[in-house]
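Need residues for this backbone.
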């Protein structure tokens, strides 16, 4: 199976886990739960990574610690420079897919709309 196929299968499984839990006692998202699409950068105008999660602080922490081998660990992509919040996992996953097809310049423009200095937003969201 190609890496694209594995990624699509993983996203499908992720969406199924949150959208239609098979055992409601095992995991049922509450009405107040949010999902996030985020962009990490290695540095200003550096390498970019787009992801989706239901726990932004935890997920960015994992990227920063290199807890999971992969793209962000290999290319040292650790600074949270942009994120969006959604109430629905399907909408978040669709937005992530859409953003991944954007040109690099569109991604840079989106980051600079709300974060012109490319500061790391992690400290702001992780503060108690």
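Answer:
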């Amino acid at each position: 199976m190609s890496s694209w196929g594995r990624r699509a299968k993983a996203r499908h499984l992720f969406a199924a886990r949150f959208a239609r839990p098979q055992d409601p006692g095992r995991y049922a998202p509450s009405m107040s739960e949010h999902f996030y699409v985020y962009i990490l950068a290695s540095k200003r105008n550096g390498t970019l990574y787009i992801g989706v999660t239901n726990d932004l602080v935890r997920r960015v922490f994992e990227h920063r610690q290199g807890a999971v081998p992969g793209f962000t660990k290999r290319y040292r992509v650790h600074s949270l420079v942009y994120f969006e919040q959604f109430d629905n996992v399907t909408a978040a996953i669709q937005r992530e897919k859409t953003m991944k097809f954007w040109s690099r310049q569109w991604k840079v423009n989106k980051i600079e709309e709300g974060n012109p200095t490319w500061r790391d937003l992690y400290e702001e969201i992780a503060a108690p």
